[in-house]
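User: Hi! I have a protein structure encoded as tokens and I'd like to know what sequence might fold into it. I'm fairly new to this, so please keep things simple.
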């Protein structure tokens, strides 16, 4: 569902793409009165700046429907399991977001994730390599694969679709070769990787502390950003607007902490995922590198004429995609405490790409954000969880997910058309 931020995070290319997306803005350095803010918001919707609204409405509708059909859907146990289940695919989707921001695609992420899990299992379990070092080797392998694929795309000129399609086949074959005749390698249940998805912070203070820290951090960053923008004479958000957004975040954060504490507490996997999202969101919105990614996604030739290192940035996003695919593969292996010939297969690649698109990253490039990975994978995994609770055939899950993805792409296309009509693209 179309959304995202511009190169500087101001929402100039389609509104907020994730949890931190931006809506109506005030005039340079001045607070915009409430009615004027509402008018600006409505004008943004008319001009195609939908932000996170479509995906949030979709998620709310999905949760409501499944809750009506089975009250256990919103139980603390199911929501806690949902919070862990989204991490592996979500990590992969974060890397896909970086590639999609350039208007490209990476079809190899599923195979790379499976290869990373297989490499870790062989090195740690069969070869006796220390677990921390085996994790590092697996992740660096993903980075190297991304760099190689990015090189063929950016330097040699092979289309990304072809390069990564070859990677999908080649890396999957290498994974099967690495696993050998056994086919499946079980991980150490008490090891670091296994604990990634099995460890919970049972102390209720941890979940509430993270909620409080996240809320306070959001307010501080938003306030300092507004002061900096106001001092520069550019549009900035009013203190009241920041307070409202912080309050909304606080409600969501403390409600989530309350629900998680009613089961086993805050999952370590979910905490790591949120930290990664916050960190990479800052990279995209507040660094020169992030601005270059958005600029190249908005127009390659214009970015090249502006003197940007187009080839280098292109290679780097595929490196990010490979790295996050490897990280996601380790989390997925942790969930089942094994690496097998099925690792990275099935519908993993499609789910990762669909999550990024459904969450708000445009297939056309230049719009989106890492929080779209969280929103999108929540939609996909919520559908899977609801279908499983109701005992419905898995085929129905694919049909529903496919329909949601089609709606997301249609909204993205209509949003771009509206923005072009209003001169915003």
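Assistant: Happy to help. Inverse folding works backwards from shape to sequence: for each of the 425 positions I chose a residue that suits the local structure. Here it is:
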């Amino acid at each position: 569902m179309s959304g995202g931020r511009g190169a500087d995070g101001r929402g100039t290319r389609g509104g907020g793409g994730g949890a931190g997306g931006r809506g109506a803005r005030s005039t340079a350095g001045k607070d915009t009165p409430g009615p004027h803010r509402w008018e600006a918001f409505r004008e943004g919707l008319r001009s195609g700046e939908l932000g996170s609204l479509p995906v949030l409405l979709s998620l709310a509708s999905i949760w409501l429907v499944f809750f009506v059909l089975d009250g256990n859907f919103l139980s603390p146990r199911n929501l806690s399991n949902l919070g862990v289940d989204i991490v592996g695919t979500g990590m992969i989707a974060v890397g896909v977001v970086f590639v999609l921001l350039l208007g490209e695609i990476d079809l190899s992420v599923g195979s790379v994730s499976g290869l990373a899990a297989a490499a870790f299992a062989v090195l740690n379990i069969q070869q006796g390599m220390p677990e921390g070092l085996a994790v590092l080797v697996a992740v660096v392998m993903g980075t190297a694969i991304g760099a190689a694929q990015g090189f063929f795309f950016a330097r040699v000129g092979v289309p990304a679709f072809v390069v990564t399609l070859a990677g999908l086949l080649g890396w999957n074959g290498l994974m099967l070769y690495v696993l050998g005749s056994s086919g499946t390698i079980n991980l150490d249940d008490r090891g670091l990787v296994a604990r990634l998805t099995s460890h919970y912070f049972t102390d209720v203070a941890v979940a509430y502390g993270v909620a409080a820290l996240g809320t306070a951090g959001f307010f501080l960053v938003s306030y300092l950003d507004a002061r900096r923008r106001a001092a520069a004479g550019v549009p900035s958000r009013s203190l009241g607007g920041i307070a409202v957004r912080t309050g909304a975040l606080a409600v969501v954060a403390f409600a989530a902490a309350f629900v998680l504490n009613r089961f086993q507490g805050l999952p370590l996997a979910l905490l790591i995922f949120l930290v990664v999202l916050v960190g990479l969101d800052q990279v995209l919105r507040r660094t020169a590198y992030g601005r270059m990614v958005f600029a190249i996604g908005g127009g390659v030739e214009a970015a090249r004429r502006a003197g940007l290192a187009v080839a280098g940035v292109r290679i780097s996003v595929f490196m990010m995609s490979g790295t996050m695919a490897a990280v996601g593969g380790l989390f997925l292996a942790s969930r089942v405490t094994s690496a097998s010939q099925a690792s990275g297969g099935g519908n993993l690649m499609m789910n990762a790409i669909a999550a990024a698109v459904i969450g708000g990253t445009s297939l056309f490039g230049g719009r989106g954000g890492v929080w779209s990975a969280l929103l999108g994978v929540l939609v996909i995994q919520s559908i899977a969880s609801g279908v499983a609770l109701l005992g419905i055939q898995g085929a129905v899950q694919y049909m529903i997910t496919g329909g949601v993805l089609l709606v997301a792409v249609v909204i993205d296309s209509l949003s771009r058309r509206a923005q072009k009509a209003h001169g915003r693209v």
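A useful reference point when you look it over: Residues 1-34 have pLDDT under 50 and may be disordered. Feel free to ask if any position seems puzzling.
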